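in:
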């Protein structure tokens, strides 16, 4: 039954549960802890992973890129199977347990068992990606079209509040370990990882109890009819060939997503390694980014209605190019705070406006919108893989994350040029720039 308040609250609690991973593991405490323990007097920032030497931060970025690549290949197949069988909650549970147990496993991560820590780090990312995808797929099931924006926003709000609450708890452990009689300097961070795993798996039980098993096909399994999700992606690819606007926008999105998503994932590691900001400052910076991102999304939405999505995205990409250039020259915490505030301002907005622009470029009577958005999601994940790998490789090759940061400007420039070209293409009964 759609628009049931209890079901919607339960669905939003999944964001409450897993957003702690994004804040603690991806953005604040883990990047600082990882950089500190893997930087030694004897080897500097070089670490040995299964007998091969890597730059520490490059290794973690390689691990993330592999995690995203695996999920980009797996999710089309799993989502197609889950949709037909109507058992997507099973997949949602599996990825949640993988992610939360992996986070808890990071409690045992120290330099001497680097391989174990990196594997847990990658598995946590895979669990998060998979859980989010299957949770998002419930939105059309639990909310009518006119309520989906409101329900989606509710999930975002729950995720923000939940992650901040746990972040503050972890913040106390990290900054005031003496209050708890902690003498091991690594223990507060490792306790934070354990808490994320417990928080994630505990609050996820609420949606697991309340959400329906899946779709209308639940318990009516016919294996021979389960088609590969890749067949749907190929079908979309063939349709795109005749949709000039949609195809060109998706190409631009692919390039600038390499920059946007990579910056979001490496910002904390950059701050710790290049500026030695410390966990306390990193937590403050990430909280600033999150708060400003909400304001930025609202501001960009207003300007999109007034001037059109394409013009707003073009303007924002120019800002992103400036951010990459500024990152190369940043020298202190104050300058990094300013860059972080700017990133927050344009981060949330460009993601939401990109998705809505893509939706508006779809032909009015497209029957398989789910397949088009699956293609969109896979495009974004592959962009993340390339962006992270490029960032890590350039750091290893040149010995500086600053060079990696400024190289990301190239992705934004390519995306910008493609979008500008869209302004000069004749309309094809999709949307006009004024409507988009």
């Amino acid at each position: 039954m759609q628009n049931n308040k209890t079901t919607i609250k339960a669905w939003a609690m999944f964001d409450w549960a897993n957003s702690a991973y994004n804040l603690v593991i991806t953005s604040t405490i883990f990047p600082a802890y990882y950089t500190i323990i893997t930087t030694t007097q004897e080897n500097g920032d070089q670490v040995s992973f299964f007998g091969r030497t890597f730059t520490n931060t490059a290794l973690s970025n390689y691990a993330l890129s592999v995690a995203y690549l695996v999920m980009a290949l797996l999710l089309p197949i799993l989502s197609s199977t889950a949709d037909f069988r109507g058992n997507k909650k099973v997949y949602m549970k599996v990825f949640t347990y993988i992610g939360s147990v992996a986070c808890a496993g990071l409690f045992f991560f120290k330099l001497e068992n680097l391989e174990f820590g990196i594997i847990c780090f990658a598995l946590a990312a895979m669990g998060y990606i998979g859980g989010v995808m299957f949770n998002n797929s419930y939105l059309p099931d639990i909310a009518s079209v006119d309520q989906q924006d409101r329900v989606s926003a509710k999930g975002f709000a729950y995720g923000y509040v939940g992650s901040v609450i746990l972040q503050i708890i972890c913040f106390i452990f990290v900054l005031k370990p003496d209050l708890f009689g902690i003498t091991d300097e690594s223990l507060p961070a490792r306790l934070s990882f354990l808490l994320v795993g417990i928080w994630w798996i505990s609050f996820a039980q609420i949606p697991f109890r309340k959400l329906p098993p899946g779709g209308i096909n639940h318990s009516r399994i016919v294996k021979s009819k389960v088609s590969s999700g890749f067949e749907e992606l190929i079908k979309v690819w063939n349709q795109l060939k005749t949709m000039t606007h949609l195809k060109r926008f998706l190409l631009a999105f692919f390039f600038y997503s390499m920059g946007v998503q990579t910056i979001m994932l490496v910002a904390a590691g950059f701050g710790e390694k290049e500026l030695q900001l410390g966990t306390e400052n990193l937590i403050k910076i990430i909280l600033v980014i999150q708060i400003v991102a909400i304001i930025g999304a609202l501001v960009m939405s207003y300007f999109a209605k007034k001037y059109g999505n394409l013009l707003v995205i073009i303007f924002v990409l120019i800002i992103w190019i400036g951010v990459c250039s500024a990152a190369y020259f940043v020298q202190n915490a104050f300058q990094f705070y300013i860059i972080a505030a700017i990133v927050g301002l344009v981060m949330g907005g460009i993601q939401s406006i990109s998705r809505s622009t893509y939706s508006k470029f779809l032909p009015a009577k497209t029957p398989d919108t789910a397949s088009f958005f699956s293609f969109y999601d896979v495009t974004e994940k592959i962009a993340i893989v390339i962006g992270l790998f490029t960032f890590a490789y350039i750091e290893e090759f040149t010995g500086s994350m600053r060079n990696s940061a400024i190289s990301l400007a190239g992705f934004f420039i390519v995306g910008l040029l493609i979008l500008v070209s869209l302004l000069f293409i004749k309309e094809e009964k999709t949307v006009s720039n004024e409507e988009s």
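note: The chain has two domains: 1-217, 227-436.
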